[in-house]
Hints:
- β1 and β2 (35-37) form a beta hairpin.
- The chain has a two-stranded antiparallel ribbon with strand order 1-2.
- The chain is mainly alpha-helical.
- The protein has 2 domains: 7-39, no CATH class; 49-89.
- The protein has 3 helices and 2 strands, in the order αββαα.
- The chain has helices spanning 11-23, 51-71, 83-88, and strands spanning 27-29, 35-37.
- This is Increased DNA methylation 1-like.
- It comes from Durio zibethinus.
Amino acid sequence: MNSPTSLFCGSSCRKIYEGLQGMLGVKNNLQDGLSWTLLQRTEQPFGSYEYNNVQINSKIALACLIMNECFLSTIDLHTRANITQCIVYNRG
């Protein structure tokens, strides 16, 4: 089960994963001096954080605050889940 190939439903899913992995941490410039970067949040035991992980998790938390401000913390009526947080943190 630890083999990366067993994590995918097929070759197309594996290609998507590999494409996204290649985009991690790459700055993509947009118009008007804006940019976006695909980040991956990592969960590590307390006390074992590296500077890079702290920096990434801080950026994701800031993105969540900005998204909440822009979209007024949209709450799902059935689950009471914050949809913005679910999207930013990729929660199911």
